[in-house]
User: Which sequence fits this backbone?
């Protein structure tokens, strides 16, 4: 068991700003305990947590089908598909759908749901940074800010993978957060002592702290979890925020042209107060 003095020393060090995109615990989305709570958050219709609420998802799918002029038989790849909330709706519209996610639990749920509802959807457990599909899809989706937690090298890898996976003139659709989003939600600095919770099944202490990197438009939510035996785990959620100019430039550097830019992926117009930027792009 770690000594109190050692724990305090570690905690003092963890109050210092880490370098941008310094990693935390490697097992996160696929952690046997955490993934249970993540799936519950995905499926909770009353909160916008792991997924947006069902009404917003319905509006987004309807708008995307209309805006992209998708027709039965068109192929769609949903990266970070979770338990299949978008993929199932696209499949019901007659599209050929593939879902990729890095959570065994989410893929298992999505696969079971598709089978029970006679939906022909191809699901794969895969890290989309290792995607190697080539010229297969009319549209690739990356929804709910999944681009933002990636570091610059990972984002370049992902964009290269998406570019390769798309057919000629294929569309890449994504949304990213703006600084307005964090202004609304703010940095948190708080603690909780729990018998059981999101991070661990047994008694533990959670110390939550936020760090702002305004010069780089980066935020960090850091969770330090101390279990009853003194074991300490540090989980880091990084967020790269964007302006229309910065996301357009980054996409252009990797071969994508912005066709239209929105305040979200339901067709809301973008304003300076928008918390999100929705983008429809195509490969050069």
Assistant:
């Amino acid at each position: 068991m770690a000594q109190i003095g050692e724990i305090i020393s570690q905690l003092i060090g963890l109050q210092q700003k880490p370098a941008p995109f310094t990693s935390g615990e490697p097992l996160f989305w696929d952690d046997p305990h955490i993934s249970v709570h993540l799936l519950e958050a995905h499926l909770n219709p009353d909160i916008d947590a792991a997924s947006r609420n069902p009404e917003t998802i319905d509006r987004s799918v309807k708008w995307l089908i209309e805006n992209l002029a998708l027709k039965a038989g068109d192929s769609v790849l949903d990266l970070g598909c979770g338990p299949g909330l978008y993929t199932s709706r696209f499949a019901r519209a007659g599209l050929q759908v593939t879902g990729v996610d890095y959570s065994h639990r989410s893929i298992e749920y999505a696969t079971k749901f598709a089978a029970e509802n006679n939906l022909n959807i191809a699901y794969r457990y895969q890290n989309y940074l290792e995607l190697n599909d080539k010229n297969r899809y009319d549209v690739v989706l990356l929804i709910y800010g999944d681009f933002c937690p990636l570091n610059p090298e990972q984002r370049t890898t992902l964009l290269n993978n998406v570019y390769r996976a798309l057919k000629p003139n294929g569309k890449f659709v994504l949304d990213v957060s703006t600084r307005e989003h964090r202004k609304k939600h703010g940095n948190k600095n708080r603690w909780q002592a729990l018998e059981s919770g999101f991070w661990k099944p047994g008694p533990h202490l959670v110390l939550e702290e936020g760090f702002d990197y305004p010069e780089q438009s980066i935020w960090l939510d850091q969770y330090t979890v101390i279990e009853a035996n003194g074991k300490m785990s540090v989980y880091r959620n990084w967020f790269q925020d964007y302006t229309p100019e910065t996301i357009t430039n980054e996409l252009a550097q990797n071969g994508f042209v912005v066709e239209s830019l929105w305040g979200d992926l339901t067709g809301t117009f973008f304003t300076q107060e928008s918390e999100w930027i929705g983008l429809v792009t195509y490969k050069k």
Notes: The CA atoms of residues 222 and 236 lie 5 Å apart. The longest strand covers residues 166-177. Helices lie at 4-14, 34-43, 54-67, 85-92, 104-116, 152-165, 179-185, 244-253. The two ends are 57 Å apart (CA to CA).
